């Protein structure tokens, strides 16, 4: 008996999900795919970070575009996979979670997968089909901070999911990914040597074409950029006001700029962190 229990425990650690219950998506809004050495399993997330859409400041165009795409999706209309790329702390991940808050009542569910789980995409789709055989929900596979090395095996697995695989993807599954890299893969100076000229046209080489081809399979590209100084300070004001601080800007402006300089970024995340620091230190 003890031996059987040991075997079952070891199998669970290595990725045998046969005895692991699937999430009940009527009761949970999000799940994560836990990648394990011999497979993986789908686990419900009881407590989900769901920011308000109005808390995401300075990214109005991207908010509107992804909101429209998601609204189409949960209405049963065609929609696109989305790549959200740009600097750190600019609201990419928070936007996806805010959309879950907005559309969870219409059947939207988010399944978080880490880059290691990209190789498990067929198993993830099978688990979702088993958990939702009636296709009552709309699933966004959410991969945060996605990027690939030159020989990363997940690269081809993702290309197959997005476009080109033999197995058709269910209509109720989309992929939203965030990345600091526009094309998801590193660009090297040597890639430029492959470009050649044909008349007035510049033709990229095979290496550059291969690197661009993955990101082009996302139907929606959204760029997120660091804020200019004036925008950063305006967002600091809004976050301070939400914390009940009405101090004149002249009293905290220089410290807010130093705060951003120390972190090497002017972003919504940095502005929110400064506001919390300022409000808390003067409470």
UniProtKB/TrEMBL annotation:
Residues in coiled coil: none
AAA+ ATPase domain location is: 78-200
Designated name of the protein: AAA family ATPase
